[in-house]
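In response to the reviewer comment on reproducibility (Comment 2.3), we provide here a single inverse folding case reported in full, input and output, so that an independent group could reproduce the run without further information from us. The structure tokens appear first.
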């Protein structure tokens, strides 16, 4: 090389943080070379399939598997009776409840697992499922959580004590046999007093309906018990492979070192793949029993009807303010419908997740939140779907309450937000419900957003539209949806966040090879977020080797360091921090090696992009590539050979990303059809690792938000039948429905994260749902609407317009 590169050129060559590096994953995905669970085919592998309950609540009178067993190619039919001797007919849930693996005397929701058929292939298994005769005796069905709390019908006899008494649940005392827990945060009496004395109080019931993450790839696994060496290998669609390994060990009794859990490529998780499902347990048992590998993969209906739903929160709210619009208090009581078993995936101490972030972006001095979890005859699960542990619910709640308060005050909703935002100089900010927000600059983001969309111009146009509508010149109304959300992502810290007692740290282990390339392994697992691309960028900047020379590997518990996995947008805040810290350990050792090679003191060399240089003599340097080789090639006094490091990172706090969104929508009053004219999304996730990946995350999260706000729902009839169990009925948006999103950003680094990064994966969903919903509600504000429930499909919007007398 004759021409010496400039610092900038050397930095560019690394492909480090801040650059729009192309996704390294896509070469295989776009060529159909991904390796998903259903691609795994092991010698002799059998196929499992479930017999499921058609009823939402019924006693099991008898199960007759003889006809199924007589079918050629059927190996076994497992029922609760077969699992009971092993103690595996029930399993613990992540929420501290227990769940039937196979129906033990009764069923609690439509689609519940009743028997597990094991056959030579999937087709035979499906035929055999039809041949299993189950006699049911129907029981009264409860699909409404308020009715469930009043009903004499007992859903969970297993949780009754002697003589029908009510022992405490996993989260304290229970008030009723269908009650799960009460969780309270904040000051009840003080808040009620503030509400009583306030100039203005707005009150509303805000319902966030039941939805489903619906990833393209459904849940599944392949269990393979090697009886010769006692090793169990479990391939599966797991968002938390290490936690699954620990759970499998605890419930099966197989020692943890004899279990290898592998998450191969995952076709979208969105929270659906955090929990443990009966299919995993049955596959493992079936493999142990038969001695050959057993695969289980859900079909679409099974995925929609039986695995982790999201939301189903009834949030009764009160918000108070002075005449001038300064908010004085916030009160919320939530009734949470958890279905038949509480299988939510929240950190143990937070039975309603981080819903106590519901004071949002506002400086609210006094607040109170109570959540009652309730059993009903619906599918278990909960929390999942780009939610950051119930933060979607919290953001939807506060952003609706703000809009309703603006109506009550007869004020502009953007201005009401502005005067109540937490100010830049108030960070770190202690919220009334117990969080310490790390950093933020809400006013700057808000002003930038309003300016970008010409907010005043939009309001003027809207006012004109209302005039025109009243004058009969148009049948279309215009809605302006506003949202300013504050997220909370990056669980840990270990001191207050654990799942099943496992502290929520994360990890990274790096090995630099002699030729200056590297492999880094993490405790997280990508499901489409592009970790192999972005974590290599963090390392490129930290250790000065090109991102293209760094392999990122996740998801194999035999090789990756222990970590709690990918959900709650925690990978960047936690594993990303571990990656930077491990990189710095590499650099510290590299510094000693460089000093030795350059024959100066350690303190006399400094890191410069891709090398260590002698201070004041930039022509004397050793590149990281040279240093890597030296680490393996020479004996350096006082320094071990090799160049490796590992970091287990326990974050001191969560990170608090935020954003300002504006949606401009036209609504045809006669058809209820919505047209999104404009969607502007400003996100602040602190230091940005890869702007292109962030933009992709934002587009995806917004599209899922559009789905939820405008039509997607898991609906039940009174008998507990799922009305939306196929993609014919369950709204999954395609390019057809999706508008052109405008993305923007500000950068307010996290002060405690080693590279200042906050998470972003869930932000667009958290902010998007209220923004779309606010646009619909806002379109009708001039005609007296306060609040209407999601999902805002055409039919419901038509009904809203009709109810307001807009159809003449
Ligand atoms: N990123 C970045 N700069 C930042 C923050 C993040 O470049 N300041 C990048 C990260 O490097 C990573 C991606 O953005 O490649 C998302 O990072 P992060 O916000 O840390 O979220 P996680 O990686 O932990 O992903 C989880 C999050 C969740 S909880 C859901 S749900 C969701 C989401 O990611 N599921 C997804 N986005 C998804 N995207 C796809 N394609 N598939 C899913 O299943
Ligand atoms: Cu809450 S859905 Mo994401 O945490 O996997």
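Designed residues, in position order:
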């Amino acid at each position: 090389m004759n021409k010496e590169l400039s610092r900038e050129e050397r930095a560019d060559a690394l492909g480090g943080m801040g650059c729009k590096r192309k996704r390294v994953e896509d070469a295989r995905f776009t060529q159909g070379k991904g390796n998903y669970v259903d691609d795994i085919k092991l010698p002799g592998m059998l196929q499992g399939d479930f017999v499921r309950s058609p009823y939402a609540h019924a006693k099991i009178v008898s199960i007759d598997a003889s006809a199924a067993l007589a079918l050629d190619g059927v190996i076994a039919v497992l029922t609760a009776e077969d699992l009971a001797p092993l103690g595996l007919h029930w399993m613990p849930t992540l929420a501290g409840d227990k769940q039937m693996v196979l129906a033990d005397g009764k069923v609690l929701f439509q689609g519940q697992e009743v028997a597990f058929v094991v056959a030579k292939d999937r087709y035979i298994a499906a035929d055999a499922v039809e041949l299993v005769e189950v006699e049911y005796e129907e029981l009264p069905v409860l699909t409404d959580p308020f009715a469930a709390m009043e009903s004499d019908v007992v859903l969970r006899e297993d949780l009754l004590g002697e003589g029908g008494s009510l022992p405490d649940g996993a989260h304290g005392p229970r008030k009723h046999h269908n009650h799960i827990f009460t969780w309270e945060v904040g000051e009840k009496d003080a808040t009620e007093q503030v509400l009583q004395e306030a100039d203005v109080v707005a009150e509303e019931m805000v319902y966030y309906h039941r939805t489903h993450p619906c990833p393209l790839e459904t849940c599944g696994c392949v269990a393979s018990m090697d009886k010769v060496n006692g090793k169990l290998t479990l391939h599966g669609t797991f968002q938390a492979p290490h936690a699954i390994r620990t759970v499998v060990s605890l419930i099966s009794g197989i020692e943890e070192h004899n279990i290898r859990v592998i998450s191969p490529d995952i076709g979208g998780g969105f929270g659906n793949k955090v929990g443990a499902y009966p299919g995993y347990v049955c596959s493992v048992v079936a493999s142990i029993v038969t001695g050959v590998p057993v695969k289980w993969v859900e079909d679409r209906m099974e995925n929609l009807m039986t695995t982790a739903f999201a939301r189903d929160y009834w949030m009764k709210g009160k918000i108070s303010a002075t005449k001038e619009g300064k908010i004085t208090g916030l009160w919320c009581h939530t009734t949470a419908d958890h279905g038949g078993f509480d299988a939510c995936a929240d950190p143990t101490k937070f039975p309603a997740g981080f819903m106590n972030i519901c004071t949002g972006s506002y400086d609210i001095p006094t607040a109170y939140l109570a959540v009652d979890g309730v059993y009903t005859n619906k599918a278990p699960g909960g929390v999942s779907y780009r939610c950051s542990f119930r933060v979607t619910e919290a953001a939807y709640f506060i952003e609706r309450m703000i809009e309703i308060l603006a109506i009550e005050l007869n004020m502009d909703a953007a201005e009401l937000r502005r005067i109540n935002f937490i100010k830049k100089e108030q960070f770190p900010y202690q919220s009334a419900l117990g969080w310490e927000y790390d950093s933020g600059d809400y006013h700057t983001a808000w002003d930038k957003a309003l300016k970008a969309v010409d907010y005043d111009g939009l309001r003027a146009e809207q006012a004109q539209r209302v005039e025109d509508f009243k004058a009969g010149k148009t049948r279309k109304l215009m809605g302006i949806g506003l949202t300013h959300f504050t997220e909370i992502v990056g669980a840990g810290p270990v001191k207050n966040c654990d799942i099943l007692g496992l502290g929520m740290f994360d990890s990274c282990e790096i090995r630099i090879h002699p030729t200056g390339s590297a492999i880094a392994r993490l405790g997280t697992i990508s499901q489409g977020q592009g970790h192999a691309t972005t974590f290599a960028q963090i390392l490129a900047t930290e250790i000065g080797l090109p991102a293209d020379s760094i392999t990122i590997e996740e998801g194999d518990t035999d090789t990756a360091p222990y970590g709690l996995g990918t959900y709650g947008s925690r990978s960047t805040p936690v594993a990303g921090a571990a990656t930077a810290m491990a990189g710095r350990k590499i650099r510290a050792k590299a510094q000693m090696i460089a000093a030795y090679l350059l024959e100066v003191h350690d303190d006399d060399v400094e890191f410069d992009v891709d090398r260590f240089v002698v201070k004041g003599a930039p022509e004397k340097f050793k590149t990281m590539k040279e240093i890597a080789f030296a680490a393996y090639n020479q004996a350096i006094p006082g320094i071990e050979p090799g160049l490796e490091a590992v970091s287990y990172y326990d974050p001191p706090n969560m990170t608090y990303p935020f954003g300002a969104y504006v949606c401009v929508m036209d609504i045809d009053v006669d058809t209820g059809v919505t047209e999104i004219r404009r969607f502007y999304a400003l996100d602040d996730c602190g230091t940005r690792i890869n702007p292109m990946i962030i933009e992709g995350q934002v587009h995806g999260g917004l599209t899922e938000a559009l789905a939820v706000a405008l039509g997607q729902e898991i609906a039940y009839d009174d008998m507990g039948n799922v009305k939306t169990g196929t993609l014919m009925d369950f709204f999954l948006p395609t390019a057809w429905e999706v508008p052109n999103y405008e993305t923007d950003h500000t950068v307010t680094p996290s002060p405690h994260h080693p590279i200042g990064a906050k998470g972003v994966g869930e932000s667009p969903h958290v902010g998007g749902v209220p923004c779309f919903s606010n646009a619909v509600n806002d379109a009708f504000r001039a005609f007296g609407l306060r609040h209407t429930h999601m999902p805002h499909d055409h039919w419901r919007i038509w009904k809203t317009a009709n109810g307001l007398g807009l159809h003449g």
